[in-house]
Amino acid sequence: MATSSVPDLFPTLRSGSDRTALRFGDRTLTYADLASLASSLAARIAGAERVAVWATPSLETAVGVVAALLAGVPAVPLNPKTGERELAHIVADSAPSVVLTAPGYELPMALGRLRRIDVDTVADESPAPLPAEPPAESPALIVYTSGTTGPPKGAVLPRRALAATLDALEDAWGWTADDVLVHGLPLFHVHGLILGILGPLRRGGEVRHLGRFDVAGVTRELSAGATMLFGVPTMYHRLAEALDDDRELAKALAGARLLVSGSAALPLHDHERIAAATGRRVVERYGMTETLMLCSSTAASAGSDGESRAGTVGVPLPGVELRLVDEAGADITAYDGETIGEIQVRGPNLFTEYLNRPDATEAAFDGSWFRTGDMATRDADGHVRIVGRKATDLIKSGGYKIGAGEIENALLEHPGVREAAVTGEPDEDLGERVVAWIVATDPGSPPSEQELADHVAAQLAPHKRPRAVRLLESLPRNDMGKVMKRALGG
Ligand code: MCA
Ligand code: AMP
Hints:
Blueprint: E1 20-24, E2 27-30, H1 31-45, E3 51-54, H2 59-71, E4 75-78, H3 84-94, E5 98-101, E6 115-118, E7 139-145, E8 153-158, H4 159-173, E9 180-183, H5 190-203, E10 206-209, H6 215-222, E11 228-231, H7 233-243, H8 247-255, E12 258-261, H9 268-278, E13 283-288, E14 292-296, E15 315-316, E16 321-325, E17 341-346, E18 353-354, H10 358-364, E19 365-366, E20 369-378, E21 384-389, E22 394-397, E23 400-403, H11 404-412, E24 417-427, E25 431-440, H12 449-459, E26 468-471
Helix pairs in contact: 1-2, 4-5, 6-8, 7-9
The structure holds methylmalonyl-coenzyme A (MCA) and adenosine monophosphate.
The site of methylmalonyl-coenzyme A (MCA) has 23 residues, from helix 5, helix 7 and strand 13.
């Protein structure tokens, strides 16, 4: 066994335990299997500068990411639905030399020059030894996230940030090796990958991934021993909608130890419907790609006798320093539930930089404090209530962050578009939906809504496509020529 001077990110991997670690459909791996598979793969990719992971919701993605983490090679998870232009950007920016994928996928041209490794999920008879734990500050993952303008930026997340955030959640949620997590989140973002896969593995517990989210899958797994559910508000909204006529679902949710929502605000109405039908309060937590998890309500608030604090995201997690700052840059000291300021944070959970973007990294910080761009108040007992965002140019749809600027740029490349502005509009299911305001090159024959939606889906990603296109003769602009999005309802 290799010795290491740094505590292991996944201590249970060294134990050779035959407990189940991962379950995807009817395929499972024990900790011993996972250690064997991931250490063999780690040996194959050792020394690579970075690896891309074709992050389908599969066992192979989980094994590939764990292998990269064992090898100390930063992994770049890729959304398999990413369109041409966005994928080309991510690959050029992160410059991986290898791509890990489940077998059987035809990978897009943008990945054609990389060495392809099909991830094996049949455990080796004579596995390679587990490598020594890499340094805590070394980069573990590079996760791409949208800003208000320009293409997505790669947030470089060191190992210590992963460990810090997962251990803070252990405290807040009483998360143990006995927990069995069920989720159907995608595996190319922090929520589904770091919390949903690496979280259970760090605790030595089990994760069951549904492949894709559906109400029946949640019911089945929570009725068969799963103890926790992670989801975005759209998923809880769909569960709340189904609860009226689904007693099995109500029973399954009532039996869960913890139902956790995050990535966007869970509307009060859905909180209340779930509490009324199940006696369980959804625990809301707040985080960001760059900062990992920042705030959460505690497990104690989840039971039927738990105090109702719906509408807040709880209190800062252990190790997280949080302050509210007013427009003039001054610290807000009031805990009055009224005074609004920007949330700024620091702590061991933070990213180190945006890859290749020292300018953007510098702009993101106020001294040592990271500017989240989220606006909030604080109650007398420290509960944080998010009331909005500083930028109108960020849209959260179904838990995905979408920058208005990247969609505008893609739309402007379409020959039928002369001017474009993108806003978010309330949507009952997705929280917000993308709306495109277009001035056509030829107003007599504008491009169709479908054509523009397909264009954006092909260039960026299907979830970034406009859900509505509105034609205008001109965009409302101020004296400086800047589009007045508020006049468009954005
Ligand atoms: C899917 N579609 C969407 C979205 N999702 N359109 C807008 N917004 C979306 N969020 C599109 C698909 O491209 C597809 O279009 C059509 O809707 C139906 O696709 P389907 O796969 O059936 O979608 P769905 O099942 O209805 O998806 C809804 C979903 C999904 C399950 C809620 O959006 C989802 O998994 N969201 C999770 C996002 C997430 O993990 N965020 C974490 C990042 P077409 O037919 O044209 O292809 S935030 C984060 O990590 C921070 C740290 C945090 O705090 O958690
Ligand atoms: P992302 O950059 O995709 O990781 O998204 C991070 C953003 O999601 C945060 O800055 C918040 O605006 C939002 N967010 C995450 N969790 C919550 C929550 N529980 N309530 C409200 N907003 C949230």
